[in-house]
Design goal:
The protein is built from one helix and seven strands, in the order αβββββββ. With 107 residues, it is α+β, with helices and mostly antiparallel strands.
Amino acid sequence: HHEFSRSGGSSWNTWVARVDVAASVPCADIKALKANCKASGKIVAKVVLFDASHDGQTVTVAIDGTPTVVTISGGRAVHKSCCYTGAHTVTLEDPAGCKPAVNVSCP
């Protein structure tokens, strides 16, 4: 029983470490932050990665400072939000400081 709990504890530690590593995608793996606003007022924010190695992980994008966690799929994370008018700012919050903010203008 003693050995079982020790190995159980060690598996748990490994699992926690793996989650920590996956918590943030490295800046070097982020190719671009793109955003535009459709005629309908829908803002489309896209985080483009160099490859699909981070699929299943998440990034955080914000529109005017309101953050949304987006799951990466196929080497990109796409967030669509409606409905906006005028000028808005899209930022990549996590990983932070990787790409400059993108300003979009909605009808």
